[in-house]
């Protein structure tokens, strides 16, 4: 088991230490290969669209050299031209070139649109699978992971990080690919036309590339930090909203606002840093682009005006100068575009690394390769020299030994931090022991499949969680195949039927978040009905009656009389009525069982349990006649079990 500090260290490494870029892209490739057809179509379309942009400058050069300022008929590959041709003939040829250029521009726009659609279709399917894998993995992670990582930060990976990837897949990635293709193709065309002129025109390209790599690398780091800080903002927001009642009850609004201000400011600073590198890159590349244009105009213009060859080659024509101006502009434009969009791609890569890091997190609780299905449980439970710890070197349980026979009720008492909740968490194998073993019917719980074990164990917690669904589906949650009649029978068993029938839509009433609109006692009764419907062989009650009133507790206790019959039950309670009727009471302190026996036996020993009874339980016992056999909450030492 890993403690909180260990989880934080892993998270910091995820942010500070970058993963291998090629490995991350390879992971993306594994998702894309299932939709190779859409990606291939997008690439083919963008290839053709780029071709229309590459060949257009040649036709512009032909328009100038062959029709507007004709000088060498041999250079006119578009059509045979006579230097003495009439104006009408030249206009007709020029009109044909204009139509061709118009067709190229229209075709390029249409093909780009179709490529965008194909890439978006591919990207959305990839993201659907990625989100599914991520959510499925989250359902399989052990409870220890959620104890060490804030829910808001986890949600950020499913929402913000995938949104960033979506933006890159649907627009940025396609434009980056098209931009790279255009740059390479234009360089080839320029070198084919005039090598010296091309080399002079491209002298600023290395400077552009250096600036692009530097600024994009810094932007990637900044976006990675931004993703981390956004996770912190979500975590603070989720915690503040979920605990708003406590915040207001303890007058901590200002402190909560101040904490959010700090995390929000950290997120702002990270985004400003990322924006700084992004905004600095664009004017830098624009300035270098103007330098490249100046080189083309000055060098080419001098060659044309002086009618002199350039570096021993042929004299440059005015059409070639205009063509190279088009080349350089089209060369510079994708560099600037790539620089801006590449930061989005880098941000998506950073988000992908966080997602893959989560997907690579190995659950602490996994089935053995040879794990068997748990047979029908009879109910004998044995803790054999059990040791457990959440953080290495800080034991929670130390050599716990006890046996629960089938049908027995085991009450676990002790102060906060004694290890009560840890014992019940080991039974359904939410955590594993670090020493010894937990056995059910003689079988080590680590040797069976967790799912087959947990389907036979019922759990009723102090803070029952209800989903935003109908009452019927909330009770049916643990047994989806149950009929409506079985659900209603379970509700009647738990005494929940009476208040459910008074709800606006009865069993079809949709509950709010976490069962809002119901009292704590009503939520608890629904939780008990859920456990009753499951009909488990082992039942765990963790403070199941600690937050209800005396009348509701009597209803719950009445339901327990039937529910506990014939089942092995483990009860963490601070109600004397439950402890007094238990077959065995375990008194814990600092992770060890210091006393065990029935209620009366432990009182006779006049040890730690006797002291606890005299200080707290006795007042409850004396109050029972006055409250019609009710019970009184204990509010001091005996609180929900420690972990």
What this model shows, in words?
The chain is an alpha/beta fold and 643 residues long. 62% of the residues lie in helices and 9% in strands. It contains 21 helices and 10 strands. The strands form 2 sheets. Strands 6-7-8-3-9-10 form a 6-stranded mixed sheet, with helices on both faces. It has a 4-stranded antiparallel sheet with strand order 2-1-4-5, with helices on one face. Helix 18 (550-563) links the parallel strand 7 (538-542) and strand 8. Helix 6 (151-193) runs antiparallel to helix 8. The longest helix is centred in the N-terminal third of the chain and has 54 residues, at 87-140.
Helices and strands: which structural class? alpha/beta
> How do the strands of the widest beta sheet line up side by side?
6-7-8-3-9-10
Give the overall shape, derived from the CA principal axes.
elongated
What is the fold-level CATH name, i.e. the topology of the largest domain?
Answer: ABC transporter transmembrane region fold
Treating each run of at least 4 consecutive H or I residues as one helix, how many helices? Answer: 21
Largest sheet: 6 strands, mixed
Could you tell me the strand content as a percent range? 5-15%
> CATH top level of the largest domain?
Mainly Alpha
Beginning-to-end CA distance, first to last residue: 13 Å
Task: Provide the domain count.
Answer: 2
Poorly predicted parts: 1-18, 626-643
CATH architecture of the largest domain: Up-down Bundle
